[in-house]
Design goal:
Largest sheet: 3 strands, antiparallel
Number of helices: 5
Strand content: 25-35%
Structural class: alpha+beta
Number of strands: 10
Helix content: 25-40%
Low-confidence stretches: none
Mean pLDDT: 96
Distance between the termini: 53 Å
Length: 183
Amino acid sequence: MAKIVNGVDVDQLMGTIDQIKQQPDIAKFKFRARNTWVEGTHSQATVKEFYGAGQEDDTREPLNYDLDEPPVLLGENRGGNPVEYLLVALSGCITTSMVAHASARGITLKSVSSHFEGGIDLRGFLGISESVPVGYQEIRVFFAIEADLSDQEKEELIEMGKKYSPVYNSVNKGVPVKVQLDA
């Protein structure tokens, strides 16, 4: 019988880790997203296939994400704002990393919830001021963890989530983004 902690199959997780230790090339993944402009500030992104574990995977149905701006930013609220999606990705990745690593250590969690907020000064985005950053100036993250753990142990879980979250590390440490014309 599989060892399940927090809904995570720990035996499968450990098996995956062992396989990757033996075959490091299967650890290399490529995730993809496509985006099509609809009109105004509205666009739609789609994810479906990815490359991982040495092969292409196109087994899931396409997942569509509508992106738009609120009316105050010339949109019609036909989807989340792109900078909100960044917060959503960050929230999911830190939480997933935290839960997976807690599960691997046999730590039972009763609940994990969080809220994320970030501040942007539109003077950068609108080209009004060269001294104002175009993106988030700061992102603040707040976690509530219910578990039979001390506050220090909960803080250690949060640190694990940050340490092992690909999205957190991409945002926090910066990652090169190459943008070019697709001929």
